[in-house]
Structures are given as structure tokens and as C-alpha cells.
Write a structure and sequence with these properties.
This protein has about 290 residues and is mostly helical. About 70% of the residues lie in helices and about 0% in strands.
Length: about 290
């Protein structure tokens, strides 16, 4: 049985209080958004945001799910793009990081500089648009939603630094002496030992795919391929346009503020459920190695 001193107990109590305060600062705004998304437009305008809606209303959610088939299709596109894109992006990023980690790979420093250079300079929006539309012919395809966020140099550099600090060269050499090939070493040794870093980077990548509304706005015109974020953006734009059209005749029954809150809940709700599963890897994956050399 571990007996803690009085100073340790006091330090633990202070730590819990500070962490609880930070947790409240993070959670309370989201609770206010959630609660007031069920308030009527009239209640928000005259009473402001509160912890209890003055007048309960589902009108904002009814407006969001006015066309349920369209919304569920948008959810399906977003879930597929997020899942498939994150898995492939993680695999390719890990392979690139492993190549740059291996000291026996020729020109690995040149490859690192080439990747880093692209983070400082790029061709701009017009060449990027022409490349996607005229050269790759990816407009109005699901591939453009997958490929646009698949390769992130920043994530590759983080994974490479993780391997430098956690994967000893002796482990790779031992596997080679036992007859393992490079691809087998990558699949059976590198990836299992890199789970913390891959979980953290996977969460960042998944959030990028989930929140991407710019790529479909630029390259997608088929309604069947609209992801969730772009569909919500269209709903909000339509509501703002309708509000401006009736501006001369004020209408308090048209949800506008409550609609924004409901859209926030609809957009962030499912992805928030991922946090508890990868939370423990956030710090460990970036700063601590999986193998102590």
C-alpha cells in the first residue's frame, strides 16, 4: 500500500482542481451550443444564450433534416472518405517516414529537403486547379476528395522524428540478420511499434477529411458526391439568402442563430466520439518512443 505524504496529497488536489477548471473551460461552450440549438429563434434573440432554453424548439433540426435522404447520403460520403482516406494516408505517410528514417537509403536527405521545400513554396491555386481538372481529370469523382488530403508533409516529418527517437537501428539489423525483408520489417515491426504516433496522426488526418468543405466546393458538382460539411454549408447559405430576401419584413420564426448551432452539433457530433479512443496516444505518440534503446 502506497502512503502519500501531506504535500503529495495537496499537490494532487491542486492538480485535480486546475485540470477540472480547464475541462470546464473546454466543455461549457460546447454545452451552451448544444442546449441552445434546441431553443427557438425568438428565445435566443430576446434572452441570449443560456444554460436552459427559454422556449424549446426543434425547428432548426427540422430545417437541417428537411431532406433526410440527402443528409444521410452526405454522412455516408463523409464517413467513407474519412475512413478510407485516413487509412491510406496513414499507410503512405508511414512508408515515407520509414524511408527517410533508414540511414542506409541513398538520397534520403535530398528527399527530405524536397518534401520540406513543398511546405514553403507551392504553385498556387490556378495551377492546382488545372492539374486536378485538366491533367488528372478528377473533377466530380470521389478520388479528388480522397487524394486532396492524403499526403501531408508535416505528418510525415512528425512520424520520422518519432521513429528516430523510438526505433533503434539494432532492431532493424537484427530482423535483417534473421532473414526478414524490408517490407516485412515495415509491416511486422515498424507499424506495431508506431501505433501511438499513428493513432495521433490518424486523428489529425481524420479531422482534416471530416471538416473539408473547400475541396468539394472547388471540384464537385454532382449532388450525390457532396460530403456533410459542404451540404451544411449550402443549407446555411440558403438560410442566409432567404433571410436577406425577407429582410424588409422581419420574421422571428425563421431560424438563423439556432440553425448555426444545430449545424455545429450535426457537423461535430460524430467525430467527437473518436476522441476517447485515441486520447491516451496524443502526448505519447508525439514525444515518447515505443521502444527504449
Amino acid at each position: 500500500m502506497i502512503i502519500r505524504t501531506r504535500d503529495e496529497k495537496m499537490m494532487s488536489t491542486i492538480s485535480y482542481i486546475i485540470v477540472s477548471l480547464f475541462a470546464l473551460v473546454a466543455v461549457v461552450p460546447f454545452l451552451i451550443v448544444l442546449i441552445n440549438s434546441f431553443a427557438s429563434e425568438h428565445s435566443i434573440i430576446y434572452n441570449g444564450y443560456s444554460f436552459w432554453p427559454g422556449e424549446f424548439s426543434l425547428e432548426a433540426y427540422q430545417m437541417v433534416f428537411q431532406n433526410p435522404e440527402k443528409m444521410f447520403r452526405a454522412y455516408g460520403v463523409t464517413i467513407f472518405v474519412t475512413g478510407a482516406g485516413t487509412a491510406v494516408s496513414l499507410f503512405l505517410s508511414m512508408m515515407a517516414a520509414y524511408v527517410m528514417f533508414r540511414k542506409d537509403v541513398r538520397y534520403r536527405n535530398s528527399l527530405s529537403f524536397f518534401l520540406y521545400f513543398t511546405t514553403l513554396f507551392n504553385g498556387g491555386l490556378v495551377p492546382y486547379y488545372l492539374l486536378i481538372v485538366q491533367n488528372l481529370h478528377l473533377k466530380n469523382t470521389i478520388l479528388v476528395l480522397l487524394l486532396a488530403g492524403m499526403f501531408n508533409v508535416f505528418n510525415i516529418l512528425i512520424l520520422r522524428n518519432f521513429l528516430n527517437g523510438s526505433l533503434p537501428d539494432a532492431l532493424i539489423e537484427s530482423a535483417k540478420i534473421d532473414g526478414a525483408g524490408d517490407f516485412r520489417i515495415f509491416l511486422q515491426i515498424v507499424i506495431p511499434l508506431s501505433k501511438p504516433a499513428m493513432a495521433a496522426i490518424g486523428m489529425f488526418t481524420a479531422l482534416g477529411y471530416w471538416n473539408d468543405w473547400w475541396t468539394p466546393m472547388m471540384f464537385i458538382e454532382k449532388e450525390d458526391l457532396f460530403p456533410l460539411q459542404y451540404t451544411l454549408y449550402q443549407i446555411l447559405s440558403s438560410a442566409n439568402f432567404s433571410s436577406q430576401m425577407v429582410n424588409s419584413v422581419p420574421r422571428l420564426d425563421m431560424p438563423k442563430e439556432s440553425l448555426k448551432l444545430a449545424l455545429t452539433i450535426v457537423a461535430t457530433g460524430p467525430i467527437v466520439l473518436l476522441y476517447p479512443f485515441v486520447q491516451k496516444y496524443f502526448v505519447q505518440g508525439i514525444t515518447v518512443g515505443a521502444v527504449k534503446g
